[in-house]
User: What shape does this take?
Amino acid sequence: MSVDQEPPAERATSRVASPDGLDPTVEALTVAVAARVPVLLWGAPGTGKTSVIRAMATAMGLPCETVIASIREPSDFAGLPVVVGQGVRFAPPAWAQRLTGAGRGLLFLDELSTAPPAVQAALLRVVLERVVGDLELPEEVAVVAAANPPDQAADGWDLSAPLANRLCHLAWDVNPAAVADGLAGGWSAPRIPGLAEGWVAEEILARGMVAAFLRVRPALACAPPSDPASAGRGWPSPRTWEMAARLWAAGGAAGATDEARSALVRGAVGDGAGAEFLTWLLEMDLPDPEEVLADPGSFALPERGDRAYAALAAITAAVAAEPTAERWTAGWQVLGLAAGTAPDVAAAAARVLARHRPAGAELPPEIHLFAPVLRDAGLLGR
Amino acid sequence: MTASLPGLAGARLWAAARFPYLASGIFGAQVVAAPGSGTVSVDEGWRMHADPDVAAQWTPAQFGSVLIHHVSHLLRAHADRARALGVGPRDGAEWVRAADAEINDDLVPAGLDLPGDPVLPHHLGAEPGGLAEQYFRAPAEGDGWEVDCGSGADGRQRPGEGPQGGLPRWQADLLRRLVAQECVRHGKEAGTVPAGLLRWAQETLAPAVDWRTLLAAELRRAVADTAGAADYSYRRPSRRASAVGDVVLPALRRPVPEVAVVCDTSGSMTDHLLARSLAEVAGLLRSLGVTRQVRVLACDAAAAPAQRVTSARQVELVGGGGTNMGAGLTAAAALRPRPAITVVLTDGYTPWPGQAPKGMRVVVALLGERAPDAPAWARAVRVAESA
Assistant: This one.
């Protein structure tokens, strides 16, 4: 087999760092902040979630308002009801007024999972629509939250499904190497990337891709989990798919690594649905079997072994579904081309194709190409 | 690459033909010639480093089996698991031996033809069908297995492997899921995929959540819904409201909910499972701040009088005959003060009432893997016999 295309430089250690040494989770965090998508970091207490977010705000010169959700009342987010004459006004708290005054900034909701359910309910509008009481926070305000998994916090609650569905969930693992570096040389402050002009057009493209995927897998359009433990994490819904499309586009516009982009997609729609979508994206690059069968000469074998195998398997499956003599011969021509670079992959597909010989089809000349490798494998004459 | 490694194509074809459900994994690993290394090893970027001189001595079946063995290390994420376990340079070989046993256990009976004498669980004095974590630190018979399968098996980077390149982590993750999907698809025809591999595939595609986590989440939710524990309420003005004039402040309310536990004591129940889940429920309630004594009702065809207990050991389980959890729920609803939450511990072989008891949340812990489903109006958690 040929050498695979070299992906962006990455370390093969536990946490793969991107070219500029940024942890993929931190990178994903900065992209989500740049795209103004509410993001939630899950991690054990004392692992530096809060300090990274504060350092990020300081480095970018953004005002950062930290609100610890667990010691707040619902009225701190829904507005304090004040009786004014005949009506009731919902007065916003001071931190919201400060952010509105600055016109931009970072709203950091700490300890989200220890907030009682009524406070979580009050947070619903704050997180997605940035509305606090009667006040709407400016568009430029980003919402970032941090939480400890319920089984690690003494008085933790599972996040309610509606609140969980408004956030992109990122897992915050401790990276021992980064801790060592930070202790010795100070913590580096991640920078929020600038999004290239016109990235909104990319967002429309990304939405189109998500829409095409959901047409193939309609069951994943909305799949609320049944148990409360998984409902407190990312799960697929129309809202989170929209979020995933936005994050995918923003990741591209910010020049983020694929590692970070995949973490963002999986954080928005959940692990299972996210992996399905990413797999589908990779498969999009494979040649279309029908086009190849119509013009076998145009076939180019993907470089990576498993992708080459997937492409050839798709072509043999297409022939098996509709075995005419013409398609069968075209299939052999494709395998003959592939045998030059990857005889083993092509031979594995050839074994399948040989079983679907249509009546009256002549034995193709390419079949002789596979005799040596089949003999090597001890598979000839069975 | 094929040119520098004679026999590779034949070996891979043998492997893909013999284990078609692993084909994507076999072709996904990139094989690199490593002359003079004297062995075959694998790194976390799905690159296999093989010494051509060593490989030349093997038959295609043996070489193919070695490839499958190493791909299995990657599929089963042995490097991540070694790191999670804190395997260091000292016990690295011991871990690889355990990981090898986990792989070979399934695949050797399915036709893997490894050169030499492969490690199997019984060599480590362990039962087959386990995980590497269970085999780890088991005393081995003899010490003929000083093997090294590379950083892909134990998570420790080798100097010769080169720090960069290979398959990016997220793509490796997708490839792993793809192989798992193919295993499950092939597994629909009975007997084609070894049971242990099928279990791995299902666990990879839909990771099972520990029943303790689920039970805790259900109870937390039940307590939160009924009690609004430490929650805010405008039902009654705050004590401080007079100090701030026009502002309406909510009061902090924290009613403690009453909890009852109904235990199925019919003949079909196993004692140790019941004791364990009862202890779990009692511990969870204590951590949720439900500190009052829990009332436990033993129930078979009819419910026995409620016992107030503070620990699982105090429960006297009477009964044994037929089963009707409906009777238990009726008896729980008749208790005074009336419980807001009822936890039912049962094996599921029981009739249920057609609808939920009024004003009471019901959490059902189904004990045993084969328990029938609980009714739709109750929240159900399956408690596994193992784990």
About this structure: Residues 1-20 of chain A have pLDDT under 50 and may be disordered. The two ends of chain A are 26 Å apart (CA to CA).
